[in-house]
Write a structure and sequence with these properties.
Keywords: DNA-binding
Number of strands: 0
GO molecular function, one term: DNA binding
Low-confidence stretches: none
Strand content: under 5%
Protein name: AcrR family transcriptional regulator
Helix content: over 70%
Largest sheet: none
CATH class of the largest domain: Mainly Alpha
CATH superfamily of the largest domain: Tetracycline Repressor, domain 2
Order of helices and strands: HHHHHHHHH
Number of helices: 9
Structural class: mainly alpha
Distance between the termini: 49 Å
Radius of gyration: 18 Å
Organism: Halanaerobacter jeridensis
CATH architecture of the largest domain: Orthogonal Bundle
InterPro entries: Homeodomain-like_sf, HTH-type_Tx_Regulator, HTH_TetR, KstR2_TetR_C, Tet_transcr_reg_TetR-rel_C_sf
Length: about 190
């Protein structure tokens, strides 16, 4: 990625996580990034384009890391465990991005709906594939891989969000073990 574009992304994430997209101006982002406002508009048409590009970039990075980390892992169960760990570590490392993403995803879903569908699709497909593999190998009893994948993503995302909103940071080990246990074993005795 172009170094200036990366500086802009980092500045935007910082400002958006602090003030939200509606409360942040392009001028504030350019100042935070140390670039001129004109430079900002050379890379992005407007704030919506910046937000959309930022969402895409973040999800693409997370998806790439997940694919890389599960490569060579044999069992679907172990892949799911690794996916949960990678997601939580990603959110811990990029907690400002997670705050921004959650706020924009839930708060402005209609505005960025097509972009979110496209991004989410790639990310969800990887996890669906693992679940399908687990069903084929009789590791999982899930009936619908899409429902199972979205459920897992929701568990991880909202649990991580809860932890860094109310506890200050993401307790990766604690959350990982609990989410994996609930997802793979259920809650019934």
């Amino acid at each position: 990625m172009n170094p200036k574009r990366e500086k802009i992304f980092n500045a935007a994430v910082k400002k958006f996580s602090e003030k939200g997209t509606t409360g942040t101006t392009m001028k504030e982002i350019s100042q935070e990034a140390g670039v001129g406002k004109g430079t900002l508009y050379r890379y992005f048409e407007d704030k919506e384009d910046l937000v959309s590009s930022l969402m895409s970039y973040g999800f693409e990075r997370l998806t790439e890391v997940i694919k890389r980390e599960i490569e060579g892992i044999e069992s679907a169960t172990d892949k799911i465990k690794k996916v949960v760990e990678v997601q939580l570590e990603f959110y811990k490392k990029h907690c400002d991005f997670c705050r921004f993403l959650t706020r924009e995803f839930w708060g402005y879903k209609n505005k960025f709906e097509e972009n979110i569908k496209e991004i989410r699709s790639d990310y969800t497909v990887v996890i669906e594939g693992i679940i399908e593999e687990g069903i084929e190998e009789n590791e999982f009893k899930a009936k619908d891989p899409e429902v199972a994948a979205v459920s897992l993503i929701g568990m991880v995302n909202l649990t991580a969000l809860h932890w860094f909103m109310f506890k200050g940071e993401v307790a990766v080990d604690k959350i990982r073990e609990e989410v994996i246990d609930i997802f793979l074993s259920g809650m019934l005795n």
